[in-house]
Structure formats: C-alpha cells, structure tokens
Amino acid sequence: MRETKNIWLGLEIGNSRLHWGLFRGETLDFTWDTDYLPESAIYQLAQCQTLDDLLLAIFPLHQRTREEFLLTSSPSSLPPLIVASVVPSQTALWQIYPNIRIITLDQVPLQAVYPTLGIDRALALWGAGKSWGFPMLVIDAGTALTFTGADENQCLVGGAILPGLGLQFASLSQKTGQLPFVEMQDFTSLPSRFANNTSEAIQSGVIYTLLAGIRDFIEAWWCLFPEGKVAIKGGDRTLLFNYFQTVYLNIASRLILEPNLTFCGMREIVMSEG
Q1: Among the residues of the chain, which ranges form H helices?
Q2: Which of 165, 121, 159 is nearest to 142 (CA)?
Q3: Per-residue pLDDT averaged across 94-110, rounded?
Q4: Exposed, middle or buried: residue 174 (CB in 10 Å: 0-12, 13-18, 19+)?
Q5: Model confidence over 25-72: pLDDT tens digits?
Q6: Cβ-contact 90, 35 below 8 angstroms
Q7: Is the pLDDT of residue 115 over 70?
Q8: What is the pLDDT of residue 62?
C-alpha cells in the first residue's frame, strides 16, 4: 500500500471552474477540473469519511477513471483541503469542509504586492519563480488573460489584465446586433489574417491582436530582464502556445508551458511550513 499520511488536496477556485490537485507531500499526483458545486454537494463532500469517499463523490463531475481514483489508497480521515479562491461567494460555501485552510495574499512571500492582487496570480508567480527562478513573468491564459511579473529579488514588478480569448469572442456576440458567436473548439490553425467572411474576420481580429499584445508584453519584459523567464498557464495556454510556434517561434522556444503553476505555489507555501 502506498504512503498516505501526507496526502492533501489543493483547490483553486477560478472564475469559471474548480481546479483540483491531489498531493502526496511535495508530489502532485494528478489534477482535474470540475464545474462549481452547489452548496448541497459541498455539504455531502464534507460528510465523507475517507479520501476515496471524497474522490468518488466528485468522480461523476470529471473524466478520470474510477480505477485511477481508487489507486490513491485512502487515509482513514478526510485530508486537508488547501484553497486559493478568486470568487468570494464560492469561498464561503467551502467553509463547511472540516479540515480547510484558505491561503491569503499575506501568506505568499512576494515583496511589494498590492492589496487587491489576485491570490491565483500571486501563487502562480511564486510557484513559477521558485521552480524556474526569478525574474519571472507569468501569463495566465484563462477567462481573463493576465500578466504578472517579479524581479530577481522576488519583488512584484506589476502586470496587466485583459479579457481572455473566450471572453472576447463572447462579448462581440453579446454586445452587437448581428455578429455571430464564434466557437473556440473549431480552432485548429491560425485563420487568414485578411478574412472573407464574418466568422473568420472575428477570429482574425481577436487572435492576431491578442498574439501581438502578448508578444509586446514579453518583449517588454525581456527589455527589463534579458535573462528573465516567462511561463504560461491557463485553459488557453496550449492553443496560444501553438499559435506562437507558428508566428513567433523565437519567443515560443523560450516559453515555459506549465498548467499547474498555482498548485506549485500552494506546494511552496505548505511545504515551507513543514
């Protein structure tokens, strides 16, 4: 039987989904995503007696196999749940979990942070910097597209926030009279830059200007820190990375593609406290 005493769960409550990570000490065993859970479902999870019970309760909401869950060799009690949240209403629901810890901004050892910096941005930056070194710029390609950077002294340089890919497509459809909604799952390659139909014109406008904007931020970062690292995470990370390999290969070759940067940051906080 595998060692179970150091098992803990990480939960990142994002703008659109819940992101889960199962840890054995410093090792992130596996990750998965679910939709938000209603209060009744969270209450049921809080009543579970073992890790297997907890994971099997979540199982219907994601794609991993039942066998993969059962390989976890459950401890006899619920594991600690370490939460980082950017959605206060969801954070409140999880307070009923019996062994919960909510990570707050003051617990992340970055210097010179401002009070409203998102905990997801702070943890991802801390995790990336501790894993690959500072200076570090983290690009989170999620619901919002964010840039967050810290210098060699682990001091926050700053960043930027703009609508992510999906939000840009959705806003054009919702806030105009006749523009269609463009399905992102249809994207397999870059569209023509100068399109001859409305859907492709929307794709071209959003994608090429977004790529150019990301390139500009990265190049500005390297002007400040020529040896600085750049890591990219978030649900659109692979799509954007593939686009960069097509149009900006010299930049793509220097990017660190890592979906679990927030969990890396959680791990650093948890492990530093023994």
Answers
A1: 39-46, 51-58, 66-70, 88-93, 119-132, 165-174, 198-224, 237-247, 249-252, 261-272
A2: 165
A3: 94
A4: exposed
A5: 999 988 888 889 889 888 888 888 777 777 777 755 444 444 455 444
A6: no
A7: yes
A8: 46
Contacts of 257 (CB under 8 A, 6+ apart): 231, 232, 237, 238, 241
Per DSSP, the three-state class of 70 is helix
User: Which 8-state DSSP code applies to residue 155?
Assistant: B
The 8-class DSSP code of residue 197 comes to S
Q: Is the pTM of this model over 0.70?
A: yes
Both structure tokens of 105: 């901004």
For the annotated binding site, the residues are: 12-19, 114, 118-121, 140, 143, 198
Q: Find where tokens 């703008």 sit.
A: 15
The encoded tokens of residue 175 equal: 């806030």
What is the reported pLDDT for 59?
58
Q: What is the dihedral of CA 191, 213, 123, 266, to 10 degrees?
A: 20
Closest CA to 231 of 251, 250, 216, 246: 251
List residues forming the annotated binding site for K(+). Answer: 140
SS3 category, 260: coil
Check residue 2 and give its pLDDT: 40
Note whether 264 and 233 are within 8 A (CB): no
Question: What does the pLDDT read at residue 5?
Answer: 58
Query: Has 120 been annotated as catalytic?
Result: yes
Q: Binding-site residues for ATP, please?
A: 12-19, 143
C-beta of residue 188 within 8 angstroms of C-beta of residue 98 = no
Catalytic residue chosen out of the listed positions 52, 53, 120, 186: 120
Give me the pLDDT at residue 45, please: 84
Strand 18-24 with 7-13, pairing: antiparallel
